[in-house]
Design goal:
heterodimer; A: 11-stranded mixed sheet; 14 helices; B: alpha+beta; 3-stranded antiparallel sheet; 16 strands; binds zinc ion
Chain lengths: 473, 487
């Protein structure tokens, strides 16, 4: 009887496969069996068998991967959490999925998400809500809730998520795992079923900062199929924990006071003290336009989604509901039955924001706010190396507690949306517990500073010493 | 009674003949099996993204330069959102308020803009009429989806249907010279819509206009515009008002039907496509595009008129058909300064063109035509003989001098020499000669020739034709060439 390889971290397993100590097929098979334990509704699909070929020679050493539903995976259901794409089998795979498979992270499972990545609780999933492994009455966060819950529960060694306004970081915080939202453009979006094109970005969800760095290192690079992708000017390889001596941490007053739960705030302040004790300086800073970020986000993201989701019309793929009364009736029936209420709400909002006569007042103005927020960060980074905030204003909330109140749900992204609008990298690491539930710490840097924030995150991770084993199934 | 004048502006779509589609790597080829030239991007599959085709931008720049436009250093692709089965993404990617080219002019007609966009898929309606009304079902062929289009928008500077057609033909010739499109109206690689209004002569303000859609030949453009001008004039004269609407012209019946009125117009919800970066054009790219420009048809016609004193029609025939102009210049080049340019011009634009309208310029080598004209100008053969030689050369190739020698076409003085030649030919081909003598004039292919020969049997050139015919081993071939005997 071989040992339980699923208790190894992804980095450690990768090293052992590369050194020949562990067989990649055996590793995959053990994870495949683990993935069958899912009783959280975290996974939408998992592999039937071990792939014939695993690229063990690649930098990722054959450690299998969980992938959010919205990444196209050839021949494997890719539904973006929506009934309109139920059972949809794409004829091609997303660039990043292919790249990770080639680097030695074969596809193990697909993970549930909020429909089209719209949500902060994973309750907007057409295939049922995902459950938080820390407390089965609570949400895992969203929209990459399936990936975060699966990593926390040990159903997959590591996973891909996507972040549009906080969809990697917030569920990572609520599930007690690490989530990195990279610089916009550093990872190809080709094959990611789009929500809001100018904001969507793929990133790793892992058990440790080292795992996040390892996975991210193989995700970056210019893709000829994505015009908005670029080569990373400072590619991530191995990220050693940074020496915090003299590191200047800025704490934006706008994102670290009002509206943040006291337990979350206590954990946040404790970690700032810890950073100081390691030699960092911690001072308040200002992001004066950050409080407007949510308003701008809820115009830009719906506007883009109203256009991105127009292709789901029942003509070429996915659900078709045809009452037999012509094309318009087919569109109407297909889309009103195929999309859930939150998606329909955002399509309506975005359609309105772009309509003639309102464009300047809504979409145009939101884009100007976005520029101002970006400038706020530029100014702050003149004085600070990194900015720290709580990731989520609250810990995981009870299932159903916010579903009737979209506005309070939207506030979940209060601390994460400004970075998405600015396109800059941000990582959430576990920051202890509040009332037995995980809390997240967010570290933010300038564009392409992944090496810096991963290094600082690794030091704080070690100092915080979070133990997530309670969530393991 | 009030005099009215028409005010016409055109919107022209030109399919660009690039190797790949506007935003993906598919080859835009026509006449293939449906849905064989597609990929995730041009099918609008989930997750697929567009990438701008640089060649299409280059073609667009050439077009802009040829139309005297200024090129924007930075232009933007917007999404034009609308739902229809021919729109796989639910939006068209098109340039909106920041187009690639703006403010140009061609032959006195101002160009408002030239911008790039992607073509829609092709809907095939399975009904009796092929029109969507009454169609039982529709199928979609995505081969056309994503084909690069350049849209050219003119200012309302045209004043008549005939002028619109002539100008459109010049535009077609100009685009053809750029070698960026097939510009074939029947096949849809050139499409024209017209904005038409009618106002009292002397009125400065533009009247309410209507839009006439998709007229698929130059003739229909003229007929359609004419019909719409007439409709508006009658309406105005009877005290009615023109309603802003989109109309479809049916060339079979000459009728105009409304497609949709302004009230039902789409709100396209334009916004910059977040999947694409702005197109930036630097001076190097502009210079490269400029260097790739050929001499434009209008300029070439002017040059011929000025250099050789040709009349307008001849200048334009040679200037507007690039291959004819090229052949003309090559022949002139070979024959040198001493030769007669008009002879070369009329032979290229007349004799050669009338025989092979398609690709006339490449039907004959310049050196061959030069050799023939040398014989003609040197008075070694007659015009009629030269025409025969041209027929032979076009049909079978070969050298004009050799054909003249082998067929005995060299000018002869008549009299004994010719009579002897006829006797020899008749002796060599007794059966054919007997047929002709028996009055089977059809054997010679042309009734006119035979009648002419009968009226004046002594005309040496008719006899030469007779001899040539008798000596020709492939007489059938001559039957089909109607111009053979026009002497
Ligand atoms: Zn394609």
């Amino acid at each position: 009887m071989s040992s339980d390889l699923t208790t190894l971290s992804a980095s450690a397993a990768s090293a052992k496969v590369k050194s020949g100590e562990v067989d990649a097929h055996e590793l995959f098979e053990q994870w495949r069996e683990r993935s069958r334990l899912d009783d959280l509704n975290a996974l939408s699909w998992s592999a039937d068998s071990v792939p014939a070929e695993i690229h063990t020679g690649g930098p990722l050493g054959g450690v299998p991967l969980g992938v959010k539903d919205l990444f196209c995976t050839e021949g494997v259901p890719s539904q973006s959490g929506s009934k309109i794409l139920e059972g949809y089998l794409p004829p091609y795979s997303a660039t990043v999925v292919d790249a990770l498979a080639a680097a030695g992270a074969p596809l193990l499972a697909k993970t549930h998400q909020d429909e089209f990545a719209m949500g902060s609780s994973n309750e907007n999933c057409a295939f049922g809500a995902v459950i938080n492994p820390w407390d089965r009455g609570r949400v895992p966060g969203g929209s990459s809730g399936g990936s975060a819950a699966a990593v926390a529960a040990g159903l997959v060694p590591w996973a891909l998520g996507t972040d549009t306004g906080g969809s990697i970081r917030q569920p990572a915080a609520l599930c007690g795992v690490v989530g990195l939202k990279p610089t916009y453009g550093s990872v190809s979006r080709y094959g990611m079923i789009a929500f809001a094109s100018s904001l969507d970005q793929a990133g790793p969800i892992t058990n440790s900062v080292a795992d996040a760095a390892l996975l991210y290192s193989q995700m970056t690079g210019r893709d000829v199929h994505d015009s908005t992708s670029v080569d990373h000017p400072d590619p991530v390889s191995e990220v050693p924990a940074a020496d915090l001596t003299g590191v200047r941490i800025g704490v934006p007053t706008e994102l670290s006071g009002e509206g943040i739960e006291s337990g979350v705030l206590d954990a946040f302040n404790a970690s700032l003290e810890l950073a100081k004790s390691l030699g960092a300086t911690v001072e308040p800073c200002h992001l004066p336009h950050a409080p407007h970020a949510l308003s701008a986000y809820y115009l830009i993201a719906p506007a883009e989604c109203s256009s991105n989701l127009a292709r789901f019309d029942g003509v070429r793929y996915g659900l078709r509901v045809d009452p037999g009364e012509g094309l318009d009736a087919m569109y109407g029936a297909t889309r009103s039955q195929g999309f859930g209420p939150e998606v329909r709400r955002r399509i309506m909002l975005g359609t309105y924001a772009l309509s003639s006569g309102y464009y300047d007042a809504y979409y145009g103005r939101a884009q100007r706010v976005r520029t101002l927020i970006s400038q706020d960060f530029d100014t702050a980074f003149e004085s600070f190396d990194v900015i720290a905030t709580p990731t989520s204003p609250c810990v995981a909330f009870e299932l159903g507690s916010k579903t009737d109140d979209p506005l309070s749900m939207y506030l979940s992204d209060f601390c994460t949306v400004p970075m998405s609008l600015a396109g800059i990298p941000a990582i959430s690491i576990p920051n202890g517990l509040s009332e037995g539930l995980p809390v997240g710490l967010q570290l933010v840097g300038p564009a392409f500073s992944e090496n810096r924030i991963l290094g600082i995150a690794a030091s704080l991770e070690a100092a915080i010493g979070f133990d997530g084993s309670a969530a393991r199934l | 009674m009030t005099e009215f004048e028409a005010v016409i502006g055109l919107e022209i779509h030109v399919q660009l003949a690039t190797q790949t589609k506007m935003f993906c790597g598919c080859k835009p080829v026509f006449g293939e099996d449906p849905n064989t030239r597609t990929c995730p991007t041009c099918l609008g599959l989930p997750g697929a993204l567009p990438v701008i085709n640089e060649a299409a931008v280059d073609f667009g720049m050439r077009l802009g330069l040829a139309l005297g436009c200024s090129l924007a250093e930075r232009s933007i692709f917007h999404r034009k959102n609308y739902f229809y089965a021919d729109s796989p993404k639910g939006y068209q990617i098109s340039q909106y308020d920041e187009p690639l080219c703006s403010e140009g002019e061609l032959a006195g007609v101002r160009i408002n803009r030239v911008h790039l966009e992607d073509d829609a898929a092709k809907l095939v309606h399975t009904s009796e009429t092929g029109r969507i009304h009454g169609a039982e079902s529709s199928v979609v062929d995505f081969n056309r989806a994503g084909t690069p289009l350049a849209e050219i928008v003119t200012e309302p500077d045209l004043r008549s249907a005939a002028q619109a057609r002539e100008w459109l033909q010049l535009l077609r010739t100009t685009v053809k010279a750029l070698n960026i499109s097939d510009v074939n109206m029947e096949e849809g690689s050139l499409r024209c819509d017209a904005n038409i209004s009618v106002r009292p002569v002397g009125q400065k303000e533009l009247a309410t206009k209507t839009e006439l859609k998709n007229m698929n030949s130059f003739r229909f453009v003229e007929k359609g515009i004419e019909a719409e001008i007439e409709r508006q004039r009658i309406l105005l004269e009877s005290g009615g008002t023109v309603v802003q609407e989109t109309l479809h012209f049916d060339p079979r019946t000459g009728s105009l039907t409304a497609l949709r009125s302004k009230e039902e117009a789409h709100d396209y919800r334009y916004f910059p496509d977040p999947d694409l970066l702005p197109v930036s054009v630097d001076s190097e790219m502009v210079e490269r595009a400029r260097a790739a420009l050929p001499e434009l048809p209008a300029a070439r016609a002017v040059r011929y008129a000025e250099t050789y004193g040709f009349e307008q029609e001849l200048s334009e025939r040679l200037g507007f058909e690039a291959d004819l102009g090229d052949l003309f210049e090559a022949v002139l080049e070979i024959r040198g300064k001493a030769s007669d340019p008009r002879l070369a011009a009329t032979w290229v634009s007349g004799e050669v063109f009338s025989r092979v309208e398609q690709d006339a310029g490449s039907a004959i080598e310049a050196s061959t035509l030069a050799e023939l004209l040398e014989l003609l100008e040197g008075e070694r053969i007659t015009t009629a003989a030269a025409r025969q030689v041209l027929d032979r050369v076009l049909a079978e190739g070969g050298s004009p001098a050799d054909i003249v020698a082998s067929e005995g076409l060299e000018k002869v003085g008549g009299g004994d020499a010719l009579a002897a030649a006829v006797e020899i030919a008749i002796a060599a081909h007794p059966e054919a000669a007997a047929k002709v003598t028996a009055g089977e004039h059809k054997a010679l292919g042309s009734r006119r020739w035979w009648r002419g020969a009968q009226r004046n049997p002594c005309s040496p050139w008719r006899r030469v034709g007779f001899i040539t015919w008798l000596n020709n081993p492939q007489r059938q071939r001559f039957h089909s060439q109607r111009r053979w005997s026009l002497c």
